[in-house]
Specification:
The protein is an alpha+beta fold. About 35% of the residues lie in helices and about 20% in strands.
Length: about 350
């Protein structure tokens, strides 16, 4: 389903148009992937310009707009003149200076604007998910859950972080993902203290924590999850730290609902860590948006001015790092007026392998 009508309604008058060129925005607006396209949105009509190679595919997929093969910049200029367009909004954060200057030169009949108004509006639209988008995110998350369950049955002591990351990637694809939402993060032992690190050749061994952070893309939309598992028996300090993080995540999820500020759930989760006496080790903000991108607005953290709305999809997480080891647990949640729906099926209790 396309979203072209919403941008057309957003345009202030009939003499204004929107020029959308980034692949991500084209995917969102058109409802299908098109790498080399230009979407020109007028108040009363929408035209997608594509290469001749993509024409038949685009015509078949198009819903609510027409498709033309772009042969020259003059084509768009003629349309601006025909419909008396005087202003054109661009995605100022998605095009280069050279691209902007090219459009300004080719479409000289109108004032081509380099403001962030169009980008801001597109992001506002993307924040509130449709039912179809939520289904896609849920399907992506089901793939993550299946991959995680399968990994728990196959991972063994002596395997390296890189080997485990490769297995996760294979399982994600084997369960029907289009691709990984991002390269899987697998960290063990002392490496878990730096949750920005990449998988290494370190072998997992008894007493380790093993952090797994991974995601899948399905139908163009991302889901992800984080889990920390214990390799064999662990000491009481690690066990206590894990329970603190698990409780903090669950308390933060309970606080989530439409109508609250972006820092509320983050404050709740950190208050729980404080109650456990481990808040000084907190290593992550509570949540950020997820959808066409693995990381997108809103960002739930201290200082956030965002007001949360129903049908916002969030990648939530709680994590700590003591300097010697770390813990991270995270789920996908979709906001409702009354609370949130946790789409992640995997247990938040500590799993031993």
């Amino acid at each position: 389903m396309s979203n072209v009508g919403t941008i057309a309604e957003w345009l202030p008058d009939e003499r204004t148009a929107a020029l959308i060129t980034s692949p991500l925005s084209l995917r969102y607006m058109c409802g299908f992937t098109i790498e080399n396209g230009i979407l020109l949105v007028f108040k009363e009509r929408v035209i997608l310009f594509v290469t001749s190679r993509d024409f038949e595919y685009a015509v078949e997929k198009a819903d609510g707009f027409s498709v033309q093969v772009l042969s020259s910049g003059r084509q768009m200029l003629d349309l601006l003149i025909k419909y008396s367009i005087k202003r054109i909004y661009t995605e100022a954060d998605k095009i280069t200076v050279a691209e902007f200057n090219t459009y300004k030169e080719q479409l000289h009949y109108a004032d081509v604007l380099a403001s962030d108004e169009l980008s801001t509006q597109l992001m506002k639209m993307r924040t509130i998910k449709s039912d179809d988008e939520i289904v896609a995110i849920y399907n992506a998350q089901k793939i993550c859950d299946k991959a995680y369950e399968r990994l728990l049955a196959t991972v063994r002591k002596g395997m390296t972080e890189r080997q485990i990351a490769a297995l996760l990637g294979f399982y994600i694809m084997d369960y029907g993902a289009e691709e990984q939402a991002f390269p899987a993060i697998v960290l063990s032992g002392e490496n878990t203290a730096d949750q920005r690190a990449k998988p290494s050749d370190r072998q997992i061994r008894d007493g380790d924590f093993l952090i797994l952070e991974f995601g899948a893309r399905w139908g163009g939309y991302c889901a992800s999850m984080s889990r920390t598992v214990a390799v064999g028996a662990i000491d009481s300090t690690r066990d206590n730290m894990y329970n603190a993080v698990s409780c903090a995540l669950q308390d933060g999820l309970k606080a989530l609902r439409a109508g609250i500020g972006g820092k509320v759930a983050d404050s709740v989760a950190k208050a729980t860590l404080n109650a456990w006496g481990v808040d000084k080790y907190c290593s992550v903000n509570f949540a950020h948006g997820i959808g066409l991108e693995a990381v997108e607005p809103p960002f739930l953290r201290q200082g956030s001015s965002a007001m949360l709305k129903a049908k916002t999809a969030l990648s939530t997480a709680c994590g700590i790092s003591t300097g010697r080891f770390g813990v991270k647990i995270g789920d996908i949640a979709v906001l409702t007026e009354e609370g949130c729906a946790d789409l992640t099926a995997a247990t938040k209790s500590l799993v031993h392998i």
